[in-house]
Amino acid sequence: MSLSSILSADAIDNAIKDCQAPDSFCPKKFFQICGLSKKSPAEVKKAFAIMDNDASGFIEEEELKFFLQRFSPGARVLTAAETKNFLSAADDDSDGKIGADEFQSLVLA
Ligand SMILES: [Ca+2]
Known about the structure:
Layout: H1 9-18, H2 27-34, H3 41-51, E1 58-60, H4 61-65, H5 67-71, H6 80-90, E2 97-99, H7 100-108
Antiparallel strand pairs: 1-2
Calcium ion binds next to strand 2.
């Protein structure tokens, strides 16, 4: 299972290109361009499971760093500042990781 089964390759490409410069990544904008924000809750849940690489039920900071590479293996890693911003945008209960519900409200909000 990969994200290309949920999103179109062109949309993924555009989203990755849009944040090619370090520190230009914005989660909301990224989800809009790649098309995930227009998907159903079930599809967003599937995308979450792909990003939760170790299947812990949460996306941890370590996994978040490699977020772009889940979309495209050749993409860059997120900078420390981007990872921190991403986490604080999604982590509603401040436990330091992103749960499926938190991910869904960030993507579909
Ligand atoms: Ca959390």
